[in-house]
Amino acid sequence: MNKSGQSLERWGKIVGLVDDHGYLSVKELGHLCSASEITIRRDLEILAENKRILRTHGGAASLKGHALEHTADPAFGETQQNLDRLDALITSSSTDNFFSLVPEKFSKRFLPVIAEAIPLPNAITCVAIDNYAAGKAIGQWAGAYVNRCWGGKAYILDLTYHLPNTVERSRGFIDGLQEVAGEGEILFSLNSHSRHETAYQLTKDAIATDARINVIFAINDQSALGAIRACRELRLDPQALMVIPFGLEGSTMRSLLAESPYCRGGLAMFPEIVARICLEATIAAYNHQTLPAHVVTPYAVVEKGSLEQYYRRAGDGWKLRPDAIERLILPMPVHTNKKTSANKTPRRVGIAISFWEHEWYKNLCASLVEYGRLFGIEIEFVDAKKTIQDEIEQRRREIAAQAAQEVHPGEVVFIDASPIAGYLAESICERKGITVITNSMPVQERLKNCPDITLIGTGGVLRISSQAFVGPTAEHAIREMRVDRLFLTVSGVSVNFGLSHTNISEVTIKQTMIKSAREVILLADHSMFESESTVQVAPLNAIHQLITDDALPASARVQISQMGVQVVVAGI
């Protein structure tokens, strides 16, 4: 095979591996692909440019919605995953799934939880701006500019995001602009996924589709930076178009407001102030003081000419002016010197972060550390996505341990290929008098030295990414067998589409397994539900029992039970 063909084959393999695992390091990919790390790094850059994977520090993550990427910023040092060390927790946006997985760590003892940006059901309060009001304020400013410079005609590209707070920003901006500039027209409202690269491509595509666009509203700095980059590359006339950022989160966007011809004004949210208010709210909650459901933080519309009223140049960046704090209306007092108070202070406060790459969180975290020193409070950083990943793996082990209780002496069982299958093999390796048939390489490796277990491999072609044997040879072997029960795994479960999976060769072998089993037990953690993969394996009522974890909502468990499936929650 020529070099080009080898590259195409390797690229396809890399994408398959990353999609199956969610995240892989350069070293891991090099080992799995039998290629040097230099080659893998070059491949990842090409695949990222072609939007086939997400390039991350040290590796690559899947672009699928369920992929968990580990992107902790090393500037803050090691993240702390031991939540038992904490006396209180501040949760950033997009960490609701994180908190739903670890509620017991906070309910066993009084540990106050403060939500930042987005309310959470178990949080004492939410520290955030009024997103709609702030969006409307910057929208009214934009409308006045459009009236003054472009005859009241605005053609809007809205780079939004699906979270409740960002949706409110977009809604407020459009209402405010149209209230002032009656001819404001929304041409596109597109989900930028809160990321620079996505906003960049969407902006290029939108302008290529409709060149009338003259107002681009971005719900955060990352989206605004992507839009400005697209405008520069397209060499658009800066006098005929403007990009309006919502955030002014750090020096990058503040510098562009001062210097870029595409940016004339934006909405400042002041992460340095939000950090102080978050910590003040945490101290109040730690002392059992009553807090409102929403602690409203300040914002300001900032233009090129008013930037230095709020920020000052400091080296290569822009820092918040101390006197700016005094001119803003704050929901509670903050301090510039060590506070003398009868209040007790927590020793360690954690902050759970998802978007480490955003300057908002870099500034928020740095300000928390600085403000925490005034009170002798240690701030610990929790990588929410890594915590979710670790928690899911623990829950998969619990599901496997529960499944092992269904295996009895004298039985013949089939174990499907998946991470949970490996944990199940660990759980039954000491059993006696059972026969295990499997198409999983890790399961075979784990059980091959267990003298009291009869181990049968299906044979077939090994699919490297999932370490599963597939193909006609494996399917023929399974058709010739009859097993007491099958422990099945898939990548997606929904009531409407049933059981689904990503790869057609694995789908056909799973279907063959189901036909050969007297009882089918699905092993699926909550993250697999309401997710529909590429190919249907079987309807949901093809299984007899589901073993899952307690993060699957009770309503979903009831719905599945009503379909005649026994639902077992591991650990309960």
Describe the secondary-structure layout.
Layout: H1 3-21, E1 23-25, H2 26-33, H3 37-49, E2 54-56, E3 59-61, E4 88-91, H4 96-101, H5 104-107, E5 113-116, E6 125-128, H6 131-150, E7 153-160, H7 164-180, E8 183-191, H8 196-209, E9 215-218, H9 221-234, E10 242-247, H10 251-259, E11 265-268, H11 271-286, E12 294-296, E13 300-303, H12 307-310, E14 311-314, E15 317-320, H13 322-327, E16 348-353, H14 359-375, E17 378-383, H15 384-404, E18 412-415, H16 419-428, E19 434-438, H17 441-447, E20 453-457, E21 461-463, E22 468-470, H18 472-479, E23 483-488, E24 492-494, E25 498-501, H19 504-516, E26 517-523, E27 535-538, E28 545-548, H20 554-561, E29 566-569
Parallel strand pairs: 4-5, 4-16, 5-6, 6-12, 7-8, 7-9, 9-10, 10-11, 16-17, 18-19, 18-23, 19-20, 23-26, 26-28, 28-29
Antiparallel strand pairs: 1-3, 2-3, 11-13, 14-15, 21-22, 24-25, 25-27
Helix pairs in contact: 2-3, 6-7, 8-9, 11-14, 15-16, 16-17, 18-19
Task: Assign the structural class, choosing from mainly alpha, mainly beta, alpha/beta, alpha+beta, or little secondary structure.
Answer: alpha/beta
CATH architectural label of the largest domain:
3-Layer(aba) Sandwich
As for the CATH topology of the largest domain, it is Rossmann fold
Shape: globular
CATH C-level label of the largest domain: Alpha Beta
- Identify the strand order in the major beta sheet: 20-19-18-23-26-28-29
> How far apart, in Å, are the first and last alpha carbons?
55 Å
Strand content: 15-25%
Cα Rg: 27 Å
What count of domains describes the coordinates? 4
So how many helices? 20
CATH superfamily caption of the largest domain: Translation initiation factor eif-2b, domain 2
